[in-house]
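It is worth pausing here to work through a concrete case rather than discussing structure prediction in the abstract. The textbook approach is simple: state the sequence, then state the predicted structure, then interpret. We follow exactly that order.
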Amino acid sequence: MGAALALSERGRGRTFPNPNVGCVIVKDDRVVGRGWTQPGGRPHAEGMALLEAGDAARGATAFVTLEPCAHPSPRGPACAPSLAEAGIKRVVAALGDPDPRTCGRGFHALRSAGVVVIEDVCADDARRAMAGFLTRQHFGRPHVTLKLAVSLDGCIALANGESRWITGEAARAHVHVERARHDAILVGRGTFEADAPKLDVRLAGLEERSPLRVLLSTQSRHPREGGGPSPALTHLREDEQMDSRLRGNDEWVLINTLDKIATLPANHILVEGGAQTAASFLKADLVDRLVLYTAPILIGGKPALDDLGLTELSLAHGRWDLTESRMLGVDRLQVYERTACLPA
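Step two, the predicted structure:
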């Protein structure tokens, strides 16, 4: 199952509207098939693994990170009957599928075909790996990661606004890895106009994984052409309605309220905005994961967050669980997840 979960991460940020599933088929203690959900959601992981396994799938065990789908689709065959027809004798699954079109039906179809089904193997790891899809299913919105790069005194820029660079090269490279794992990346208007950020992925071999770029602005129209620091301004839609069909590295999507993130074509969103944007997501209780890069410097500049509206310190406690901590060069990476951010 660990190998299947690792494979599922290959599809993260590229499979919307489908989950990023991983599948490994094993026969006689030998891996005969591997698969993960492909860009755009098809082929499914099981289909890819069955194709690689061929006749060796008969009598084999399939390890899959999510209940195989059972509902018909014009985009491809359902995975539960495909596994049974290929002769798979046992399916080991990490999670049941919360999608009402499959929920329980995949396991039922497999058992009805004589396939042994084992559930809930490495379930917590699977929830983390497919957090975007699960957040969509349970809450109707993407999974949101807030990224902050700060000094030891919690600042994101000097008093004069200079912010390049708070962290070193290793931490900045890690940010690009994070971008590659998200469908969309969002900044606020202040960051957009001050920094003219590219928000792309600039790591060799991952350039094509640059996410959809999103601008959050309370103004319903974009700045006048030529009035801002970036030619990307001309790519913004002038109306306030976000068009989810806009995709591509040379386009921006404009949204003017936080609830519009639910309409973005994304399971995972990375927020890289300034203090105001970060605070707005936190105040709305929309941050599921926090990625914090801390540089060993003191700058006495602009704080990372605006007022969160807290009236007493007790309200700030018990909100975050530390899930990862390590050094990236001289900088420290800490990853936090919101306590009980996903239903069990």
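Step three, interpretation. The longest helix spans residues 169-180. The chain has nine helices and 15 strands.
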